[in-house]
Amino acid sequence: MINTSFEQRTERRNRLIGLLRSETYWKTADLREQLGISQRTLMRELAELKRAGYPIESERGRGGGIRLNGRWGVDRLQLSHHEVVELILSLAIMESLQSPLLTSNLKAIKQKLFQAFPQEQRNSVSTIRKRIMIGDNAGANTVSRYTAPGSHISENIAEAFLAQRCLEIDYQSDTGEHTTRVIEAQYILLNWPIWYITAWDHLRSSSRMFRIDRIQNARLVRGHFQLKPIEVFIGSYTPYYQSI
Questions:
Q1: Neighbour tally for 131: CB within 10 Å
Q2: Are 194 and 210 in contact, with CB atoms under 8 Å apart?
């Protein structure tokens, strides 16, 4: 007699889902053999998975079988709001860089993902995209002196930019001067591979541009900010950049 304890049923169901995802089609006989269960038990498990929302399909006739709809892996992803935003923005940035390889489908992928997300997230992404500007590639001399910032710095900068939070940075200028200041990361610019923050600087009470690799440390502080027109920050340079 088959042991139907809760633990065994859970393990069997997880194995069944794994099998369905591993191949395009499965014959019921092959699934029964893999799981060591009867036809009746297999049909009951498949029916319960359907009721739980899994898009299980069956095709009759020669060559048919049982399958888990191929879109399931994407549709069932549980992404946080920031993960959704970063995913769409990353695709848009790669599309803007116009790489000749592995980017031919980026626009279609981005549009499909964009439409799959709730309206609130789509509105949020649309607003943020206007704050990310892409320019030319950085010069060889600039790139040779570039060092990628630490992950904790990048994460705090990203959070400050996305959530419009004030950020305190320890910054080293091109001349070697060290200062600590609170900034508003209003816009970001990319001259590949170097990112710049176009910010409102509380220390100078004016707009400033900061190279991200010269930020020695970055800390989120209390306070949020309102967006200002991009012309306030890059002025005459505006025609040389395009938003993603």
A1: 20
A2: no
Select from 35, 37, 34 the least CA-distant residue to 1. Answer: 37
Strand residues in the chain grouped as ranges (E): 56-58, 66-68, 132-134, 165-172, 178-191, 194-201, 206-211, 215-224, 242-243
pLDDT in tens, 203-231: 999 999 999 999 999 999 999 999 998 78
Q: What is the pLDDT confidence band of residue 75, given thresholds at 50, 70 and 90?
A: low
Q: From residue 159, give the alpha-carbon distance in Å to each of 1, 163, 166, 225.
A: 56, 6, 10, 13
pTM score over 0.70: no
216: Cβ contacts below 8 Å, ≥ 6 apart:
169, 170, 171, 172, 178
The answer, yes or no, to whether residue 50 has pLDDT greater than 70, is: yes
Q: How far is CA 102 from the centre of its chain?
A: 18
Residue with structure tokens 């049982």?
66
Query: pLDDT category, 60, cuts 50, 70, 90?
Result: low
**What is the pLDDT at residue 9?**
83
- Closest by Cα among 210, 212, 190 to 198: 210
Q: How far apart are CA 81 and CA 121, in angstroms?
A: 7
